[in-house]
Amino acid sequence: MEYSKEFKIALSAFSSTDKDKLIFRLLKKDKLLSKKLYFELIDPETTDDKRNAMEKEVAEKVLLASKYIGNAKYFLTIIRKISAEVTEHVKITTDKFGDISLNLLMINAILEYNEDLSRQRFDNVYKLYLYIINKIFKYLILAKKLDEDYWMEIDELLRDTQHKISENHYLQKLCINNGLDINWLECEKIPDDLETIMKEIKSQGFLR
After folding, report:
1. What is the pLDDT of residues 163-208, one digit of tens each?
2. How far, in Å, CA of 93 to CA of 46, rounded?
3. 8 Å CB contact between 54 and 86
4. What is the DSSP letter of 119?
5. 133-182-67 Cα angle (round to 5)
6. CA dist 105 → 52, 116, 141, 197 (Å)
7. Under a CB-based contact definition with an 8 Å cutoff, are residues 131 and 76 in contact?
8. What number of other Cβ atoms are within 10 A of residue 118's Cβ?
9. Separation CA 143–CA 145 (nearest Å)
10. What pTM was estimated for this model as a whole?
């Protein structure tokens, strides 16, 4: 919402004590903002520290979730929760590199279980595969916008993703059907207009 000049002046007129009370009331209602301010003001951990911790957490949680692969709907629910934790990390730290690397790490961790996934009926894993494909599109788009200094590290993750997709017949076929060319899984080969390409694919009823 827009704040009028008069409203801003009225807030500025609050005493220091009243401002402190208001801030703490607001922070109690907004835990994410509270965590973000804590990180920015006094947290001894750096963005790299928190990303490293999240890498371990993602790997561990996907490992724990893997025993539910036979229940694809529940497995995807857990994966979405892990992804939400990554999103929270990004919002707190503004970690643009981590946004890409952690999500690709999660995808690769899921595809470690290609053998188990391949034993499932395609109908059961369809939504999971489509979720993965949408994620790949999103993070290819973001990777292309990222500073090129990070590309080498991203490419390592993308090579792993590409390899794992090539070992999963149904996922590979679904990638083709939904317009995702696995040859794009290298930063230099990501089309500059991939965001436009993705929108066009969705307008045709795919990726849904």
Report:
1. 999 999 999 999 999 999 999 999 999 999 999 999 999 999 999 9
2. 9
3. yes
4. T
5. 45
6. 12, 18, 16, 24
7. yes
8. 14
9. 5
10. 0.92
